[in-house]
Amino acid sequence: LNAPDPTNQVLQEIVAHSSNVSSLVLGKASGRLLATGGEDCRVNIWAVSKPNCIMSLTGHTSPVECIQFNSSEERVVAGSQSGSLRLWDLEAAKILRTLMGHKASVCSLDFHPMGEYLASGSVDSNIKLWDVRRKGCVFRYKGHTQAVRCLAFSPDGKWLASASDDSTVKLWDLIAGKMITEFTSHTSAVNVVQFHPNEYLLASGSADRTVKLWDLEKFNMIGSSECETGVVRSILFNPDGSCLYSGSENTLRVYGWEPDRCFDVVHVGWGKVSDLAISNNQMIAVSYSQNNVSWYVVDLNRVKKSGSVIQGLIQDKPIPAPTSALGSTLRRNYERPTTSCTGQERSPSSEDEKEDKESSAEITNPEDYKEIFQPRSAISRTPPKRTEPFAAPLEHSFSESVLEKPVAVVTTSVTSPSRPVPIGLNAGDFLSVTSVMGDEEALAQIRKGHDTMCVMLTSRYKNLDTVRSVWASGDVKTSLDSAVSMNDLSIVVDVLNIINLKPSLWKLDLCTSILTQIEELLQSKYESYVQTGCISLKLILKRFWPLISDTLTAPPSVGVDITREERLKCKACYKQLKNLSNVVKNRAEQVGRHGSTFKELQLLMAPLYY
């Protein structure tokens, strides 16, 4: 494996919004444009590697949950938590359309490759196809049962793939307006889906830590990885279609297929990566935390994209000799005819016109704006301006790993000039150095709190070891009860994270033990606790609400009451879920990423409110 050395990537960080960042996307055509959406209801446009925002787009009245560029990067669309979409023309710096129709937060978007159409997916589980010229929805696709997290049009524009929290990937025929097939091999929420640029192949990445490949001629799975270290958040085919890149927590992997192969693993400190793009044979990746956005660059010239596999990551399989030249295939390739969609024309309403007038595009960096968004008639845009690769600094010497050469790094820290300054604080008070600290004093500062931390970690290790010993006997219920009895939420979270990775472990008995703990997790001040609680509650509702509802509404049995014990468990769960529904309802009124998650839970718990 490549050594986890920070020299594997170019890094830069910006303060992107005045409040938390809620979404971002890279322009795939150039790899040089970045759009960020925030809880401040703004969409900001950036040039990768430059610290200043080019343009700030306003108009949304709720947090921006997803963004997407069109193929030419001349337009950008953003979906909000309220369910509205806004489309801007970046060259003209103005709003083009406001589209209304979703009943819940919009969480996925994609532009049709050859037409004036775009698709949107929502927490309400619906997919809508919009004609932006007619300013209306031309078709609605129904079939998912939970939030639609990712949408992707096929290169020929005839199909639409959708990935959902219901663990399925669906393929839709845009012309016929119906579902072609459904892929159900994932065991947890599917976060991302992408078509191969040439062949009839589809790739998907999931929270079950797998990447799967599907043959779109036979509609069967032809490959699956089992070696991801975390949730798969982004995937991207190489432009020539020779391999697939997968981004999970702090790791970039390179896959081949037929047979399954992992060519390389690059350890990158990007945390929970959000998007990937390729430019000049460099991988550009972005991630965010609170109101900060970081981007990273990996030199793909130093990453293996073919050849021998990395041992130990997948089961060793003999690799057959190639039967054809590189780039040729027996699988069918996409044709790219011009496609069209039919629908009823919808005239803009006065309410829509009011929405458009309230939206604006403020150019904050005229020089970069003029350089990037030239008018279509400008000669400099045909042919497009060539971009140079990001410059690498002098290489540091370190022990080499699988790669023959180290990948260089540039580290820059940037602070937005518009960032608010705290009142009553003087930065000089924190930055000034009055004296040089001696070695002993420095060590004392480092050791401060160390003993306390050691005691805490030792206690946690001891508790986890106790739970593990019970778990080894195969009794999940007793293991969970043991964790709950320790009155330490961190232990409960650790156990729940393991159970959530394999939803089949959930039983009705576990629900009665853990729902009270989940109520505490949902109200915790720690983000990871809240997230684990939401995932657990979602799995419980998905797997057991139909059983609980049917059991409680069933007529009383005659004679021996065989189902009495199960009915008592269902009653206990119903009572606890009823209490949880009030917590979820209150938290759903909050803004931000958790507010969106709680709104989704509120929809799942809707029967409890009646």
Automatic annotation (TrEMBL):
GO molecular function: microtubule binding
GO biological-process terms attached to the record: cell division; microtubule depolymerization; microtubule severing
Recorded GO CC terms: centrosome; cytoplasm; katanin complex; microtubule; spindle pole
InterPro entries: Katanin_C-terminal (IPR028021), KTNB1 (IPR026962), WD40/YVTN_repeat-like_dom_sf (IPR015943), WD40_PAC1 (IPR020472), WD40_repeat_CS (IPR019775), WD40_repeat_dom_sf (IPR036322), WD40_rpt (IPR001680)
Keyword Transmembrane assigned: no
Alphabetized UniProt keyword annotations: Cell cycle, Cell division, Cytoplasm, Cytoskeleton, Microtubule, Mitosis, Repeat, WD repeat
SUPFAM superfamilies: WD40 repeat-like
Biased composition (Basic and acidic residues): 348-360
The organism's place on the tree of life at top rank: Eukaryota
Chain positions of WD repeats: 14-56, 57-98, 99-140, 141-182, 183-224
Katanin p80 subunit C-terminal domain mapped to chain residues: 448-605
Subcellular localization, as worded in the UniProt entry: Cytoplasm, Cytoskeleton, Spindle; Cytoplasm; Cytoplasm, Cytoskeleton, Microtubule organizing center, Centrosome; Cytoplasm, Cytoskeleton, Spindle pole
Comp. bias regions, Polar residues: 325-347
Residue span of region Disordered: 321-390
PANTHER family associated with the record: KATANIN P80 SUBUNIT, KATANIN P80 WD40 REPEAT-CONTAINING SUBUNIT B1
Reported function: Participates in a complex which severs microtubules in an ATP-dependent manner. May act to target the enzymatic subunit of this complex to sites of action such as the centrosome. Microtubule severing may promote rapid reorganization of cellular microtubule arrays and the release of microtubules from the centrosome following nucleation.
Family in the record: Belongs to the WD repeat KATNB1 family.
Oligomer status and interactors: Interacts with KATNA1. This interaction enhances the microtubule binding and severing activity of KATNA1 and also targets this activity to the centrosome.
Name of this protein: Katanin p80 WD40 repeat-containing subunit B1
Originating organism: Sinocyclocheilus rhinocerous
The encoding gene: LOC107711579
